[in-house]
């Protein structure tokens, strides 16, 4: 029941019964440690070494900056920045149809707006000139980031070619400059998240050079998943007209709740975002099919974990435990009918409320979809990410005509090298065309 694989001299136990996941993800760090692997990746991928680094402290510092009042501020800033990136880019490009790749378009829009939201903008109040600079600078950050992102799986596995190493080192060097504390110090409207993180690094006595590296790591942690998630969501909508019609219908109803004309809206109120349960279901379904993070733990002491069927399994000190929710629960045919298919209303009850009851072996599951991880290292930016993706889809559907260049195009296969890193990316981009509707 529990496949064990030997990787580089270490036994990795793969646990695929979602009924047991909760015990593992909430187990104390003195038994199942989740820091060691994070530190290894941090050093190997991002060259970050922090003195006295304690991920739990860092998490405690970050958490409040992504929730409650700060969440509202982030959501509002994101809406403004999405408009800067999407609408002003489109106005500048002029009317008529534009051709591009859907992944490039979605990833670039969300990362650029997300970067401006967290790391700050050129000036406040915004001027035409400062927004032009915001668009150019954020595009530079995205393009440089993307060069690194494309090589990330190879970098993590230590399999870069000589040419790749050169690309990686150039992209990192440029990102360290773009995100250096000195450069960021000149930016306006920086998020509480950034202020608090910088203070945390300073308190630990981290050098400015190392701070820049840590800020690049955070750019990846905070922005590496939203763009690909928005890509799959829009692609599923474009390939499933019944889903697109349902989302459009809901959007029109949501717009009736707001008093201003949409072109003058400077924010999309949380109550409007929360009223889009069809879009929520579409997002959950897209993530179910495309989110594939590894959840790993180092076994610190010999121990036994109870299984759902009453048996126990033993873990030896020094082994590694891996949960892979992408296989189960997310693609488990016992839990979902036709698990490979996109069904936009899979997470909706008949009365339009969120469906939360899913079963395996006759027992209700607590963890039935885990794109955000779970337990000690569940995603802290989840609410902000959900709001951001919904705002992006809203702006796209309200202000753009969007079509697949070839309506019969197949949904691309995954780039298999990305299993374990979060959202999957496609093997190749999907051509689309879009037209701005003022
Ligand atoms: C679709 C978008 C996103 C997805 C699918 C996602 C998913 C995840 C997952 C699976 C983890 C756990 C990683 C692990 O096991 O170590 C995680 C952690 C984290 N995420 Fe997200 N994330 C998204 C967006 C964001 C955003 C926008 C932010 C912040 C603005 C964010 C902040 C974080 C942080 C700080 C952690 C680390 C938590 C810890 O310390 O353990 N995420 N995310």
TrEMBL record:
It catalyses: prostaglandin H2 = prostaglandin I2; a hydroperoxyeicosatetraenoate = an oxoeicosatetraenoate + H2O. Keywords: Endoplasmic reticulum, Fatty acid biosynthesis, Fatty acid metabolism, Heme, Iron, Isomerase, Lipid biosynthesis, Lipid metabolism, Lyase, Membrane, Metal-binding, Prostaglandin biosynthesis, Prostaglandin metabolism, Transmembrane, Transmembrane helix. Heme binds at residue 379. Its EC number is 4.2.1.152, 5.3.99.4. It comes from the Eukaryota. SUPFAM superfamilies: Cytochrome P450 (SSF48264). It is a single-pass membrane protein. It is found in: Endoplasmic reticulum membrane. PANTHER family: PROSTACYCLIN SYNTHASE, PTHR24306. This is Prostacyclin synthase. It comes from Loxodonta africana. The gene is PTGIS.
């Amino acid at each position: 029941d529990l496949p064990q694989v030997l990787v580089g001299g270490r036994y990795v136990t793969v646990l695929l019964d979602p009924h047991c996941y909760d015990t593992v993800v909430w187990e104390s760090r003195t038994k199942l440690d989740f820091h060691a692997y994070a530190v290894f990746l941090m050093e190997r991928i991002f060259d970050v070494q922090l003195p006295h680094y304690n991920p739990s402290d860092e998490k405690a510092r970050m958490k409040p900056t992504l929730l409650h009042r700060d969440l509202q501020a982030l959501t509002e800033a994101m809406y403004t920045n999405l408009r800067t990136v999407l609408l002003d880019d489109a106005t500048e490009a002029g009317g008529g149809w534009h051709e591009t790749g859907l992944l490039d378009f979605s990833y670039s829009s969300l990362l650029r707006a997300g970067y401006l939201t967290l790391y700050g903008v050129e000036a406040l109040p915004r001027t035409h000139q400062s927004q032009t600079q915001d668009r150019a600078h954020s595009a530079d950050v995205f393009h440089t980031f993307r060069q690194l992102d494309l090589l990330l799986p190879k970098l993590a596995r230590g399999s870069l070619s000589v040419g790749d190493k050169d690309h990686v080192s150039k992209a990192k060097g440029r990102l360290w400059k773009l995100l250096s504390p000195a450069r960021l110090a000149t930016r306006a409207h920086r998020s509480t998240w950034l202020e608090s993180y910088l203070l945390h690094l300073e308190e630990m006595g981290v050098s400015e050079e190392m701070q820049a590296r840590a800020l690049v790591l955070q750019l990846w942690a905070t922005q590496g998943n939203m763009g690909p998630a928005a890509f799959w969501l829009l692609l599923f909508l474009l390939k499933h007209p019944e889903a697109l019609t349902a989302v459009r219908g809901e959007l029109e109803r949501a717009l009736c709740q707001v008093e201003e004309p949409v072109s003058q809206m400077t924010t999309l109120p949380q109550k409007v975002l929360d009223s889009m349960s069809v879009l929520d279901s579409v997002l959950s379904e897209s993530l179910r099919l495309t989110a594939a993070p590894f959840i790993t733990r180092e076994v610190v002491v010999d121990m036994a974990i109870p299984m759902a069927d009453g048996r126990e399994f033993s873990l030896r000190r020094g082994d590694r435990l891996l949960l892979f929710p992408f296989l189960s629960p997310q693609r488990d045919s016992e839990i979902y009918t036709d698990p490979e298919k996109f069904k936009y209303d899979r997470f909706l009850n008949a009365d339009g409320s969120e469906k939360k009851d899913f079963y395996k072996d006759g027992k209700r599951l607590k963890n039935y979809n885990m794109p955000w991880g779970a337990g000690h290292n569940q995603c802290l930016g989840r609410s902000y990410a959900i709001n951001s993706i919904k705002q992006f889809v809203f702006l796209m559907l309200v202000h753009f005509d969007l079509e697949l260049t070839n309506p019969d195009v197949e949904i691309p296969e995954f780039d298999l090298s990305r299993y374990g890193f979060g959202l999957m990316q496609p093997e190749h981009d999907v051509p689309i065309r879009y037209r701005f509707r003022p």
